[in-house]
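S.,

Sequence below, as promised.
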Amino acid sequence: IDVVEKIPSRSLVYFDPPYFPLEKKTAVFSDYGKGGFNDKDHNHLIEKSIQLALKGNRIILSNHDSDEYVNEIIKLSKEQGVKTKMYRIPTMRKIAQKSSSRGLIDELLIFLWA
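The prediction came back faster than expected:
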């Protein structure tokens, strides 16, 4: 996330991180880098997104529609005075580790700005 510090104000920034697990202790693909992408990394990205919004940027995050993830964004955004708009997008999953996980689920596009 070091590159985040170099983003000029008034930019549109889109983050598409490894998706937050829909349920705790479920597998998600997170091996984009050494050590994977865990809850701490998700929280750090949310915090950086809010900081960028406060600097005059427009932020778009994509992820699973996870209550825990959404609640964290709403909580931190309200604390910092950042506005949010969330769009739920029904998406068909045809590939998943468990066949029971395949089917229609909601993904999120989350917009942040100050």
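The mean pLDDT is 84.

Coffee later?
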